[in-house]
Design goal:
Blueprint: H1 8-16, E1 20-21, E2 49-54, H2 69-78, E3 80-81, E4 83-84, E5 96-97, E6 100-105, E7 110-115, H3 129-142, H4 146-151, E8 152-159, E9 162-167, H5 174-181, E10 183-184, H6 187-192, E11 207-214, E12 217-222, E13 247-252, H7 256-264, E14 270-271, E15 293-299, E16 304-308, H8 320-329, H9 332-339, E17 344-346, H10 372-382, E18 388-389, E19 394-395, E20 397-403, H11 407-419, E21 423-429, H12 431-437, E22 446-450, H13 457-465, H14 481-491, H15 498-511, E23 514-527
Parallel strand pairs: 2-13, 2-14, 20-21, 20-22
Antiparallel strand pairs: 1-11, 3-10, 4-5, 6-7, 7-9, 8-9, 11-12, 12-13, 14-23, 15-23, 16-22, 16-23, 17-23, 18-19
Protein name: ABC transporter substrate-binding protein
InterPro entries: SBP_5, SBP_5_dom
Signal peptide: 1-23
C-alpha cells in the first residue's frame, strides 16, 4: 500500500491554525497563542509520549455531562469508576473493581460497597464514601443518564469507607451499569474547581489532563501521586502507567484522511477509530494488518437504530402505516455497503448480537425486509399516496437527525426515502447540539443513533423506551402502558427470560416504534509495536494498550 502523499506546508497550516485554548483554569474563553499539538517534540525531554489521533470531537469532560463518543474515549483514561467492565457481559462480581475494595449484596436491590481507605485525587483531596454518594446523586439528578435516574433509589453513607446503594428495580444489568457509568471525583475538588472540569478535570485517575487546546489536542500526563500504589490492584486502564508512558497526547483529527496521513508520517502512533474508507491502508483484504501496523476489529456493542418521533401531534403519532412504510423503504444492506463500505452486519432487532439474551432466530425473520412497492402501498394506506402530503400537495417533509460523524449512513437513508417519494432533510449535528436536541421532539422526525449495552438486549430497550416521570419513552416520546409493562417484564431479574424478551421484541417490531439498522465494525489502528486494547463497548482505551515494545 503506497504512502499517502501530503504537502508539508498543508500539514503545517492544519497544525498551526488559529485555535481557542482550554485555558489554565479550564475556561473556554481564555485566549492562547496558536501552537502545534504537543506531539513528537514533547518527547525531547526523555519522556515516553504516545500520540493518539482522536477521530471525533471531544464533548464535555465534566463527570456528569451527557455521554458522547468523544468523551468516552477520554473518560476511561482520566476518571476512576467504582468498577469497570474488562469483558463484555460480566456481572458486578466479575467486573474489575477499581475504587471498590469489596461489594456485598444485601438483598435483591441493596448493595454495600467498601472503598479503599487511601483513595485521593491529584490535588491530594481524599475520596470517601460521601464523595461517591455525591457523584451517584449528581449523575442521577443531572437528567443526562435516564437509565441511571430510573435505576437508583438512593445512595447513603455508612462511614468514611462504606456506602449503601439501593435500586428502584431489579432490572438485569442495572447495578453493573451504575458501577461503570458514574465517574467518581472529590466533592471538595469539584466544587472548588467546577469551571475547569469540562476540559481539564481533576481526578483520582492515573493520568491527568494538563494541557489542551479546544478542537486541537488534549495532553494527559502521568499522575506522580496516583493513589493505587499496589500494581496488582490497578485496573487494566492503567497499563501504560506501569510501562513507562509519561504522556498521552490526544490530537483531534476528525478528517479521516488526515488521521491516516498523520499515522503514516509518524506524527501519531494510534488512530482511535479508522474510517472505513481508510482502513485499506492498514489492513489487507484477508483481515491481516499491513507491514508496520496493528489493527483491532471489533463488532460494535452499540447498534445503529432509527427512532420515530411519537410525541403527541407529530406525523408518526397514531400512524402505524406511515412508520411501517419508512421501515420497508430502508435497505439495510445498501446502507452497510454505501455508508460503511461493507464493514458491518444487518440486525433484525434493536439489540446487540453479542448479548446473551439475543435470539439468533431473529436473524431469519421478516423484519420489514426492503420492499419499495410495499413501502409505497403503505404510504397510500397512511394517507400520503405517492409520498405526497394532501394538505400541501408537496412530498411529505421528514427531518432526519444524526450525529455528523455518521452522515454517510444518513445520506443513504435519505436517498432511500426519496426513492419512496418522500422529502427527507438531513440535520447532522456535533456532540453538544445532538445531546440537547435528541430530547426535544420539536427538532426531529426520525432520529438515527447508536444505543449501547453492557450485557443484555433488554438494556438497549430500556435506554429507548423505559419511561421517566412524564410517562414518555426517552428516545421516541411514545406513551404506551402495554409497552412499559413488556419492558419491565423483560428486564426484571425475576421475569427476564426467553418468553418476556421475545414478547418485547415482537411488540416493538409490530408497532414500529424503532427499527434496527446495523452493527458496524470498529477499527482501531496503531504501530505494530503497540498492543491495542478496546473497551468491551468498542472504544479504544489509550492507557490500557500494551506499550512494552513501543519506543
Amino acid at each position: 500500500m503506497k504512502l499517502k502523499k501530503v504537502l508539508a506546508a498543508a500539514m503545517a497550516v492544519t497544525m498551526l491554525g488559529s485555535l481557542t485554548a482550554c485555558g489554565g483554569n479550564g475556561g473556554s474563553g481564555e485566549a492562547a497563542a496558536a501552537k502545534a499539538p504537543a506531539g513528537k517534540e514533547a518527547s525531547t525531554d526523555g519522556s515516553k509520549t504516545v500520540n493518539i489521533a482522536m477521530t471525533t470531537t471531544m464533548g464535555d469532560l465534566d463527570p456528569f455531562a451527557p455521554p458522547t463518543q468523544g468523551r468516552n474515549f477520554l473518560r476511561y483514561a482520566v476518571y476512576d469508576n467504582i468498577a469497570i467492565f474488562k469483558d463484555f457481559g460480566t456481572s458486578w462480581d466479575q467486573m474489575q473493581w477499581v475504587l471498590a475494595k469489596n461489594i456485598e449484596q444485601k438483598d435483591d436491590v441493596t448493595f454495600e460497597i467498601e472503598l479503599y481507605d487511601y483513595i485521593h485525587d491529584a490535588l491530594g483531596n481524599p475520596i470517601h464514601a460521601s464523595d461517591v454518594v455525591f457523584c451517584l446523586n449528581s449523575i442521577s439528578e443531572s437528567g443526562n443518564f435516564t437509565r441511571f435516574t430510573n435505576y437508583m433509589e438512593s445512595a447513603t453513607v455508612i462511614d468514611d469507607n462504606h456506602l449503601e446503594v439501593k435500586l428502584k428495580t431489579t432490572t438485569v444489568g442495572a447495578f453493573e451499569y451504575m458501577l461503570a457509568q458514574c465517574c467518581i471525583v472529590s466533592q471538595k475538588t469539584y466544587e472548588e474547581h467546577k469551571d475547569q472540569f469540562s476540559t481539564k478535570p481533576i481526578t483520582s485517575g492515573a493520568y491527568q489532563v494538563t494541557e489542551c487546546v479546544s478542537g486541537s489536542y488534549y495532553m494527559l500526563e502521568k499522575n506522580p501521586d496516583y493513589w493505587q500504589t499496589d500494581k496488582n490492584l490497578r485496573s487494566y486502564t492503567a497499563n501504560a502507567y506501569d510501562q513507562g508512558v509519561d504522556k498521552l497526547v490526544y490530537n483531534v483529527v476528525t478528517e479521516a484522511s488526515q488521521a491516516t496521513i498523520a499515522l503514516q508520517m509518524g506524527e501519531n502512533d494510534i488512530i482511535t477509530v479508522c474510517n472505513n474508507a481508510e482502513i485499506g491502508y492498514f489492513m489487507n483484504q484477508d483481515g491481516t494488518p499491513t507491514d508496520g501496523y496493528s489493527v483491532n476489529k471489533v463488532l460494535s456493542s452499540a447498534p445503529m437504530l432509527l427512532a420515530f418521533n411519537m410525541d403527541e401531534g407529530q406525523m408518526f403519532d397514531g400512524n402505524l402505516a406511515l412508520r411501517q412504510a419508512i421501515c420497508y423503504a430502508i435497505n439495510q444492506e445498501d446502507i452497510i455497503a454505501g455508508g460503511l463500505r461493507g464493514n458491518g452486519e444487518a440486525i433484525k432487532d434493536l439489540g446487540d448480537k453479542l448479548c446473551g439474551d439475543y435470539n439468533p432466530e431473529w436473524n431469519e425473520e421478516d423484519y420489514y425486509d426492503f420492499d419499495l412497492d410495499k413501502a409505497k402501498a403503505m404510504l397510500e394506506e397512511a394517507g400520503y399516496p405517492g409520498g405526497i402530503d394532501p394538505a400541501t400537495g408537496a412530498p411529505l417533509h421528514i427531518r432526519l437527525m444524526i450525529d455528523q460523524q455518521y452522515k454517510d449512513t444518513a445520506v443513504v437513508i435519505q436517498s432511500q426515502l426519496i426513492a419512496a417519494g418522500l422529502d427527507a432533510e438531513i440535520n447532522a449535528y456535533d456532540n453538544s447540539l445532538l445531546a440537547a436536541y435528541q430530547y426535544d421532539p420539536a427538532q426531529w422526525d426520525l432520529y438515527v443513533f447508536i444505543q449501547g449495552t453492557e450485557c443484555y438486549v433488554t438494556s438497549i430497550y430500556d435506554g429507548i423506551f423505559d419511561a421517566g416521570a412524564d410517562g414518555k419513552a426517552p428516545k421516541c416520546f411514545v406513551k404506551d402502558e402495554t409497552l412499559q409493562g413488556l419492558v419491565e417484564a423483560a428486564h426484571e431479574i425475576s421475569t427476564h427470560g426467553d418468553e418476556t424478551v421475545e414478547a418485547l421484541h415482537d411488540y416493538v417490531r409490530d408497532n414500529a416504534y424503532a427499527y434496527g439498522l446495523y452493527q458496524s465494525y470498529t477499527f482501531s489502528v496503531g504501530r505494530d509495536t503497540i498492543g491495542l486494547v478496546n473497551h468491551p463497548w468498542g472504544q479504544l482505551v489509550g492507557p490500557a494498550c500494551d506499550y512494552t515494545n513501543f519506543k
